[in-house]
Design goal:
By secondary structure, the chain is an alpha+beta fold. The chain has two helices and five strands, in the order E-E-E-E-E-H-H. Strands 4-3-2-1-5 form a five-stranded antiparallel beta sheet, covered by helices on one side. The longest helix is centred in the C-terminal third of the chain and has 15 residues. The protein is globular, with a radius of gyration of 12 Å. The chain starts with 8 loop residues before the first strand and ends with a helix. The model has no long low-confidence stretch (mean pLDDT 93).
Length: 93
């Protein structure tokens, strides 16, 4: 898999309790692990550490989330919920 995870990128969880759910990458720990959050079950303050192999990286990246993280170092849970909802609606889920 040559696709490198990016901050603000949408992912689909393939393994674990949150299987089949959508989330956003909010931090990259190393080449194997990232932190994901969805704003509701997984809040920004308590993100989930996931192995990249257990995630399906989506082609879309949320500019709102990545710019917010770059500017302030954090993103609101409401914004995470909003961009995930918008992305799911655009995909037709």
């Amino acid at each position: 898999m040559d696709a490198r995870p990016q901050i603000g990128q949408f992912v689909k969880v393939l393994r674990g309790k949150d299987e089949e759910s959508c989330a956003v990458i909010i931090a990259i720990l190393d080449e194997r692990f990232v932190l994901i959050a969805d704003g509701s079950k997984r809040r920004f303050d308590q993100p989930k550490k996931k192995n990249v192999l257990h995630l399906e990286l989506q082609p879309a990246v949320s500019q709102e989330v990545s710019s917010s993280l770059n500017e302030t170092g954090r993103v609101t849970n409401a914004k995470l919920r909003y961009v995930i909802q918008k992305y799911a609606n655009a995909k037709g889920e």
